[in-house]
């Protein structure tokens, strides 16, 4: 008993990578389904001299439908569907009459039939080898003689700002009436940073519409002939105010020269060709926003990294620095702290008028358990309630008796000032508040005498040493009249840039030598020994006390 066989007409597409004449190939096949054992086979009709192995492509067998182990069944086959067999996709377009009747009898609704795809290379070979073109009656010689040296000039732009690093460039398009050719010249500006190529596109005829089969033609290598072009660009295609696509690049024509306007008026009756304004307004400048302050250094220094690739130091007030050079306001302060050990600690605040910077020095106290010395280097101190974006720094008007100064989370109370501060406040009373002036006035009345120098408040850094105090009293009694006592403290403070109260030994002896201090005297030698701090530093506050009246 013979079992019926279902037959389907199908095709698949095969890539041809190594051929310049065809990119793909259409191969027509017949798919047979054997109802006896649900097997299938694929057979390609043999074409003579095709050069392709044809015949039985897939021998009779059960074909896998998916990766789960299912096989194709006759219920899976229909017209107008794709089936994949061993990685190749077959398109079923038709079936024979028996197959159609069988599937309809089983209740399967068949899709409408499709046309069998044709191989483009096979159809191309069926065409005649030669094509005879009827000669045109257009007189090219007459055109050449009539329009020789007559050129239409158009001004256009190519706007490529939508792409990355794109820009808007100006071009001049020439249309030669004598042979309908076009060239495009780029308009160069001085220092535009581009190589001065004279032409963007050489003079040639420009295709406007290509034939359907010429879209895959390798135009970048071969010249386009009349057989691949249905329509060429002519003068009527160049209109001011309309875009024009040439070789994939869209130009916008915004103006033309007077000869072109006259030609369009006489030839095409177009008299209105106004210039189109293509100038773009500059966008508003982008407001520079500084990033949040990271807490390192001063705000002004950190902001310089946002203004230039190589940051520069912020500008300084040179006149202020020259007028206030070596002018320092000194204050005695106490630390406001709940810790009992911090109640007796004293600090010297030095405010430098030239730079508005503050330094803090803690005079060392023997057997206190606290290492004295520099507490804070020269820097600007921000007030606690000022914003990070607009910092407000402490100024001279913020320092007065009883004022609370907060330095990086530590609160200090001003207790006393030196005489220079009093003179400065007297000469610049307008800078200070009535509260500050009143506090100084009460402080002076409380002491009952002119304010002693601020240094005298701090030179007694070690009151427990009776030997130092006795020696100071002895020197004050024996050396009452010494002409160098007036400039001694000022000389030491000039060399002490950080207002620490210490100078190195080499600088100390130089100053004493310049002031003719008798350092060879036995009492002064003993005083220098007691004022020494370490091996190479001397506390000049205690040394100057011995010569103060």
UniProtKB/TrEMBL annotation:
Biological processes per GO annotation: cilium-dependent cell motility; mitotic cytokinesis; mitotic spindle organization
A Pfam family annotated for this UniProt entry: DM10_dom
Gene Ontology CC terms, in alphabetical order: axonemal microtubule; centrosome; mitotic spindle; spindle pole
Main location: cytoplasm
Cellular compartments annotated: Cytoplasm, Cytoskeleton, Flagellum axoneme; Cytoplasm, Cytoskeleton, Microtubule organizing center, Centrosome; Cytoplasm, Cytoskeleton, Spindle pole
Entry keyword annotation includes Repeat: yes
Keywords on record: Cell projection, Cilium, Cytoplasm, Cytoskeleton, Flagellum, Repeat
All copies of domain DM10, residue ranges: 2-107, 148-268, 325-429
PROSITE patterns linked to this entry: DM10
SMART domains, alphabetized: DM10
GO-annotated molecular function: alpha-tubulin binding
Quaternary structure annotation from Swiss-Prot or TrEMBL: Microtubule inner protein component of sperm flagellar doublet microtubules. Interacts with the C-terminus of CACNA1E. Interacts with alpha-tubulin.
Protein name: EF-hand domain-containing protein 1
Native species: Pteropus vampyrus (Large flying fox)
Gene: EFHC1
């Amino acid at each position: 008993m013979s079992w019926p066989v279902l037959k389907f007409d199908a095709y698949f597409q095969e890539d041809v990578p190594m051929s310049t004449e065809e990119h793909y190939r259409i191969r027509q096949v017949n798919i047979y389904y054997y109802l006896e054992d649900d097997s299938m086979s694929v057979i390609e009709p043999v074409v003579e001299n095709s050069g392709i192995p044809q015949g039985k492509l897939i021998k009779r067998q059960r074909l896998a439908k998916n990766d789960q182990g299912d096989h194709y069944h006759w219920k899976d086959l229909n017209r107008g569907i794709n089936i994949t067999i061993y990685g190749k996709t077959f398109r079923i377009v038709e079936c024979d009459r028996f197959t159609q009747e069988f599937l309809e009898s089983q209740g399967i609704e068949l899709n409408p039939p499709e046309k069998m795809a044709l191989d483009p290379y096979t159809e191309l070979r069926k065409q005649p080898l030669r094509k005879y073109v009827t000669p045109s009656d257009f007189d090219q010689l007459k055109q050449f003689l009539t329009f020789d040296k007559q050129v239409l000039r158009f001004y256009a732009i190519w706007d490529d700002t939508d792409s990355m690093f794109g820009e808007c460039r100006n071009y001049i398009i020439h249309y030669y009436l004598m042979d309908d050719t076009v060239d495009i010249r780029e308009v160069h500006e001085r220092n535009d940073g581009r190589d001065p190529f004279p032409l963007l596109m050489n003079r040639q005829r420009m295709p406007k519409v290509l034939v359907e089969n010429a879209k895959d033609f390798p135009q970048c290598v071969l010249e386009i002939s009349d057989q691949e072009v249905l329509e060429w660009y002519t003068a009527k295609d160049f209109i001011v105010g309309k875009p024009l696509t040439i070789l994939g690049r869209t130009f916008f024509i915004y103006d033309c020269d007077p000869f072109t306007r006259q030609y369009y008026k006489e030839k095409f009756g177009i008299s209105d060709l106004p210039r189109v304004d293509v100038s773009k307004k500059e966008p508003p400048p982008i407001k520079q926003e500084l990033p949040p302050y990271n807490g390192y250094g001063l705000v002004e220094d950190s902001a310089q990294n946002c203004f230039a690739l190589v940051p520069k130091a912020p500008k300084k007030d040179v006149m202020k620095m020259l007028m206030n050079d070596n002018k320092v306001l000194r204050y005695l302060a106490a630390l406001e702290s709940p810790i009992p050990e911090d109640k007796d600690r004293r600090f010297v605040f030095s405010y430098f008028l030239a730079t508005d910077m503050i330094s803090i020095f803690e005079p060392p106290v023997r057997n206190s358990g606290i290492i004295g010395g520099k507490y804070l280097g020269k820097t600007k101190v921000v007030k606690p309630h000022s914003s990070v974006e607009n910092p407000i720094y402490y100024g001279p008007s913020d320092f007065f008796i009883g004022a609370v100064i907060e330095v990086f989370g530590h609160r200090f109370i001003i207790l006393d000032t030196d005489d220079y501060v009093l003179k400065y406040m007297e000469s610049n009373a307008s800078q200070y508040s009535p509260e500050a002036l009143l506090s100084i006035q009460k402080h002076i009345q409380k002491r009952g005498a002119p304010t002693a120098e601020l240094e005298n408040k701090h030179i007694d850094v070690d009151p427990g040493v009776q030997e130092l105090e006795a020696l100071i009293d002895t020197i004050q009694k024996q050396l009452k009249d010494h002409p160098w006592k007036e400039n001694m403290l000022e000389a030491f403070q000039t060399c002490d840039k950080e207002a620490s109260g210490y100078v190195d030994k080499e600088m100390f002896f130089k100053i004493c030598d310049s002031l003719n201090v008798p350092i060879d005297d036995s009492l002064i030698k003993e005083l220098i020994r007691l004022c020494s701090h370490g091996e190479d530093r001397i506390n000049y506050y205690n040394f100057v006390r011995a010569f103060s009246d």
